[in-house]
Task: inverse folding
DNA sequence: AAAAATATTTAAGCTTACTTAAATATTGTT
DNA sequence: AACAATATTTAAGTAAGCTTAAATATTTTT
């Protein structure tokens, strides 16, 4: 399957998972940087290949076959991120950018070699789960967005759901990193802001950030 | 530049280097598995992009710009082969196959990271030289084909110029490996065969093999 | 030096993955 | 419930990278 198809299927998969947007052509188009017309076109083509269910004006839904393909690409993406992060001194944003391309040029055999070399990791450097060779995610995610946390509790960062360079630079600067702990000192519910204490620094985060930083309650 | 263009330019580069075939569209077409017509078409297109000199019915010649592009792709190819060979238990043929794809999806930055990680190696696992970040090959190659060697002398294998699976399997089986030494016991000039002694085994090689196994005279 | 065999080029056409513009349907607002 | 705003779909068209078939040039053989 082509790069365009792999990216399309993956975008639907991720849209359905994370964003509770409904997965209509327009949303996918926006993510992929193509026109709505192109997305509709592609959706119809993929339906004829049995990769997704298409009904005019309805949300797109992957078939089992489409889902499997998406998970295969996601697996390769996250394995590459893990490898590059381990071997080289590269930022989360940079490894993501490289993985976005490498994911399409990787045989299943190579993916398995990478996985084996890394000790079959279950999570990538963002904290995202890595599907196994059968396209299954066996770990269960108990984490919640920082925006959903309670005042006065301690949490461990489990996932940074972003591809944005500036966000990662901000995170790096303030110690917001997979595995680090923080304390939620105040929730400004009206303003949708969250005040946290991390590394003895107090920071105020708005919803753009608190909705993509995932955490687990800590001791 | 597209994958098709990178492969095309690289094929011209390699054809000019190794094979003393003249580099006409038909030869390139054969290597890339496309029609002669497609190769001519592409050659004309690349001439308009200043990547090669095209004159009807004449051999193709890369411009400086084209040469630089080819070396950049070759660099990435050989760095990937080096990395995969080091990290994973993969055959020379397999690493070549993966590198053939990865070479087109690798930023200069990532290439430099790989090079640095490996200690800026000068040769890949086949013994082929790796161009530096400026697209220069600084090593000089003094090796000769096994077919050109003299009876009664000892040589060290410096290069296995092939992508062929069966050839590599044969090599692996008989200890024909980068760095290993062999003794040329007889040259059958009329039959274009070479008899060598390696690991206490005598093997008779025909020209298909002796022309792609490169060696340096050894003590 | 012809003739025959080969190789190259041109021409016409196809598929993929896009684009913009126009038509149509859905959704949100008054 | 009607109107306006928004989203989706259809239609028409483009560029890249191929194909096969036919025309033309080059190379090899006789
Ligand atoms: Mn990523
Ligand atoms: Mn991608
Ligand atoms: Mn190779
Ligand atoms: Mn290639």
Result:
């Amino acid at each position: 399957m082509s790069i365009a198809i792999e990216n399309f299927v993956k975008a639907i998969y991720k849209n359905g998972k994370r964003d509770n947007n409904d997965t209509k052509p327009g949303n996918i188009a926006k993510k992929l940087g193509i026109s709505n017309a192109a997305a509709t076109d592609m959706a119809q083509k993929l339906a004829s290949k049995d990769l997704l269910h298409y009904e005019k004006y309805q949300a797109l839904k992957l078939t089992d076959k489409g889902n499997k393909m998406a998970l295969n690409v996601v697996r390769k993406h996250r394995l590459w991120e893990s490898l590059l992060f381990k071997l080289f001194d590269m930022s989360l944003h940079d490894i993501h950018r490289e993985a976005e391309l490498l994911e399409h040029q990787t045989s299943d055999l190579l993916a398995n070699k990478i996985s084996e070399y890394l000790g079959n990791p279950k999570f990538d450097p963002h904290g995202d789960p890595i599907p196994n060779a059968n396209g299954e995610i066996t770990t269960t995610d108990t984490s919640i967005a920082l925006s959903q946390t309670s005042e006065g509790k301690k949490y461990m960062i489990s996932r940074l759901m972003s591809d944005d360079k500036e966000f990662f630079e901000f995170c790096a600067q303030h110690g917001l990193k997979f595995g680090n702990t923080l304390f939620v000192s105040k929730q400004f519910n009206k303003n949708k802001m969250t005040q946290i204490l991390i590394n003895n620094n107090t920071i105020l985060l708005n919803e753009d950030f608190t909705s993509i930083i995932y955490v687990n309650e800590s001791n």
